[in-house]
Amino acid sequence: MSRRNATRGRRVEFLARDRLRDRGFCVIMSTGSRTPVDLVAGKHREVVFVQTRRLRRPVSDVHAVAARFRNDIVRLQGVYRRAELPVQLWIYTDREGWRFFTVHAGGVAEVSGDDA
After folding, report:
1. Which of 9, 18, 39, 71 has the lowest tally of Cβ within 10 angstroms?
2. Would you tell me how many other CB atoms lie within 10 Å of the CB of residue 38?
3. CB of 104 within 8 A of CB of 115?
4. Which of 81, 17, 83 lies closest to 50, judged by CA?
């Protein structure tokens, strides 16, 4: 990954962090690029693990997300199985903004921004 792409990706992590903070979450950001999640957020008794991705072009549907991010989803399913807490993949594009996907043991499903 080039330094420019890493910087863009990091900016998206900060956008996600700010979004979670605005919703009342305390957020811990990961420092490594090889960790399965970028953010761990907690509020009261609610915890969510978030992996962020930035794309130039929007993805068409959940099937495209599952194909494009297959390796990420497999890693996130491992987190889900170990933690048994919500795990989400947040995808950001300049044209669309955020799209949110919940990762389950059996796959991935798109959720509304209110549920993310």
Report:
1. 71
2. 24
3. no
4. 17
